[in-house]
Amino acid sequence: MSTKRILQRILSKKNLTSLILLFILIFTISTITTSKGDDTSLLKKPIGKIPPNGNPLISHKFGADPAVLVYKDRVYIYLTNDIVEYDKNGNVLENSYSKINKITVISSEDLVNWTDHGEIEVAGPNGIAKWAQNSWAPAVAYKKIDGKDKFFLYFANNANGIGVLTADTPLGPWTDPLGRSLINWATPGVAGVVWLFDPAVLVDDDGRAYIYFGGGVMPGREEDPNTARVMELGSDMISVVGTAVPIPAPYMFEDSGINKINNIYYYSYCTNFGPRKPGGLPLGAIAYMTSKNPMGPWEYKGIILKNPGNFFGVGGNNHHQLFDFKGKWYIAYHAQTLARALGIAKGYRSPHINEVQIENGVIKEVFADYKGVPQVKNFDPYRIVEAETYAWCAGISTKKANASNNICLTDIDNGDWIALSKVDFGNNPPKKFKAAIANIKGKGYIEIRIDSIDGKKIGTLEIKPQGNNSSWIEIETSVDEVKGVHDLYFIFRGEGESLFDFDYWQFIK
Question: Which residue in 109, 198, 222, 254 is the catalytic one?
Fold first, then answer.
């Protein structure tokens, strides 16, 4: 469910909580007069992710437990698809995770503008892996097999096992090659593990691969739970070899991570929330160990990232992945920042990224923030761009546009908008702008502005109902001269709700 619909559902409640949230909502919408003074329509303010901040990465939906794949100059992040739960009276409940059976995928080439690729239907009766009930905390890897890159998506079936899906691209289509779990309670070496979940996978330089998993704490074992494991994967990436080996991670709780940096293996994990002796590790923090061998022995080194509660005023569990992109190291993690902004900080999480500094093999502690990371390249507006690509937004939702799993913007009301960061128009300005539109409910417009939501208007795309409003049509308009690098805003206008769906756009020279 989108951020917009969550707010609407909460505000439909006739109680004190709803009145408080209504008061908040009033202050998230403001009347803005544009620089030309020709527009006083209500423009919605963003919730959770505020320009120019980069965190959280998305604000139109939730997503947790980030798993990162870097492939062909693009970063793909696979996320646990947090679903807001309600009681019979419509009150928001704590996240039980029991309803989660999909994995959300987003991607970016610049770490600021993100494309929503929708959800992979992993588990449940309509899922790819029908034997599984849930799909939590994914891990993703690829390996060249028979001369072709093959992709592997590992997931936790709640805390009772780990499954795997395969595909020929990072976006699928995905299949279940086993029809059962890859790791379960019968797997050699898992005795003593409390939770069989939270996989992390490393494909080493020699082609051998390893899976790291496990978690949980038995009473009285907070300092040394002994519930983390590593196991070699078969050459096919969908089988295991030998016996799982314990990783002696102090104060282990969950969230295995694995990286190889300068021929040293870095195992990272989230510490537990149990009682501590003086000098014990911080609660719910990302810690790390190192080894010269992917299966150990391991030596504890330090803390990478304290619990999100230290930075955002709301805590909860902690989950991460370290990754290298274009020569710099980053950490992806989650926090309840969007949920807090919505007034429902009950375990619903959102993805974030911050830079990581590594000096002489030591990972320096990261301090999380809303600012995020610098954009690594400017955005090209002269190709076809999926409309569900943006840095910031207000009001919109996304959905499948057709049976081929193409995603589009939907649920577009008057005053909704999206914006992209650092769009490079170059020195040869565009002459036209075109967009693919469908399901037109009435006359509408897309205002095209630069630099800010009330910045210079360089064009307006007029949208009129067609004979078959469900079919996708391309509409063009001329645009005023624009050169150089600007933030780009698309502001949606019209009467009523759900004005139209928006699939892609392009500037034309």
Answer: 254
